[in-house]
Every structure is written in C-alpha cells, then in structure tokens.
Amino acid sequence: MKFSIIVPVYNVERYVRQCIESILSQTYDSYELLIIDDGSTDGSGKICDSFSGLPQVKVFHRKNYGVSNARNFGIRKAVGDYIMFIDSDDYLFSQDCLAKLAYVLKTEKPDVLQYKFIYYYERKKSYHFVDDIICNNDDILFNKFFVMIRNSTLSAGCDKIIRRSIITDNDIFFNENILSEDLDFSLCLYQHINSLTITNTDVYVYRQQRNGSTTNGVSRKRVKSLWYVINKWCSYNYSAEETKKMFLSYLAYQYLILLSIVGRNNSTKEEIKKYKSIIGILKNDLNYKVRKFNKISSIFGIRAGIISIKVYLFLKNKGAVRL
Predict the structure, then answer these.
(1) 45 and 174 inside one domain
(2) Number of folded domains in the chain?
(3) Prediction pTM value
(4) pLDDT (tens digit, 9 = 90+) per residue, 59-74?
C-alpha cells in the first residue's frame, strides 16, 4: 500500500525543511512525496530542491496559482493508493505516524481515515493535544459523521488520508476560486464515501499564530467564500433527511464563525443583511457549540450569542480553551 503525500509550498523557508524532514524520517517508507513549489519568492524552492535527489521525492516548480491549484496538481500527479495533504508550515508529530496509519488502513480498509491534529502555538512555543474522539468504528457511517459534526472535526483538508480512487473517480478537487476550500472539499468528499475510520492517533502538528499564514486575519474574500460554501451546501440535495440535518448542523457551526467575523472585514450593509438571512440554519443544533449559542441567545439576545462565539474563537487562537 502506497501513500501519495502532497505538500504545496509558498514562501515558508523558515518551516518547510522541518515539514519535509518529518515525512522523510518516517519508519514506513512506501510513499511518494510530491512537493509543489507554488512560485515561492524566498528560499523555499532551493530548500525543496535539496531533497529532489531522493527516490521518494518529486519536486515541481510552478507559477503562483494558489494552494488549491497546487493540491489539485498534486492529485493529478499522484499514483499512490491513498492521498494525504500536509501544509508546508506543519509537520508530522512522530516517526511512526505513517506506520500507525498504514496498520489501520490495512486492517479496516476504509475510504477515509480521519486522524488527530495537535495544535502548536507559535508565540507560546507550546503544544495543545486535542481530546480523544469517542467513536466505535463498528458503527454505521452516519454515526461516525455525527461524532465528527458534534466535535467540529469535519472540515479540514489535512486531518485525513483518502483512498485516491474516491477522489479521481468522482472528480473531487479543491475549488480554486474560494478561500474556504477545505470545507467545500470535505463536504463534497463525504457525499461519495462508503466507509470511514476515526483514529485517535496524534499525527498532524498544525501550526497556529504564524505570521503570513492564510488562516490568519479576516478578509472580505474569506467571508464571501465561507458564505458561498454554506449557501451551496444548505441547498444540496442530500440522500436522506437525517443526513441533511446532520450536515446542516455542521454548516450551522460554520455560520456562527461567519457571524463572528462579518463585522471586521468592511462588509456592506447589504452583504450583512444577506448573511443574516439564513439565521434559521441554527435550528440544526447537533453541534454543541451551536446549542450553547442558541441557549445564550435565547436568554440574553443574539448579540450576546455572537459575542460569546467571538470570545471562544479568540481564546482558541490563543490556545486558552479546550478544542
């Protein structure tokens, strides 16, 4: 069983060596490492080239088209049985990560294997380990989705390893025109899989608070992108009513994030009115953060509910709350 590990790179000369070396140091060696230099203007490209002589490594240099285009390029080049995405400022936690994942994949044979993030806070130089997800992998697929939605662990692109044929057979690619590409990709992916395994193995170190990271800051395009994805998947023709409520519950959590940031990006009054037009989505409350928001809003009003979400997200970014 072979993994295709796709790493888009753009101006991360401070971090990319650690990322690549964390992969090359793995005890499991049946993988190809596809490094896509997305038009870096710093020393990232040269660092990538220093690994190009290794048999598992393929380095591609391209114009800057963005992370989604780079990932899609990697998908088309991949030949492994499973695909894994790693951002170039992040890294694998230990040398046996791939071996542990390979064992689970050989045993369970799922279409998707979901694993755990470890948050690394750059300013505090500290790790934050996420609580284990309580899930019986003998459960039906619906129950596993429910667990992920309840725990807000559905939308990332880098917390899962995916059977490559699921992606290629169903033309599942990252939308290159939006900034909420991971959420859109994951929601599309989960409409096409037949099996899912969740492991509590600590695999992926997700770097927080990095200067220059695209996840930092709030732009008007980011809000518009999140709105686009929420609106798109709210109107999707789901296979069953219970499935629809489940995914709408996760979209409700994403909608809370949108409400918490919409006032910080120069959105027009018309845009804000549009964003608030689907506030009824919050009745889908399988996610506990949505339930907490609804409870606070019912007692103190919606403005208090939005403030509570802003406080939660601020503390999360500081590493001061349990995730």
Answers:
(1) yes
(2) 2
(3) 0.91
(4) 999 999 999 999 999 9
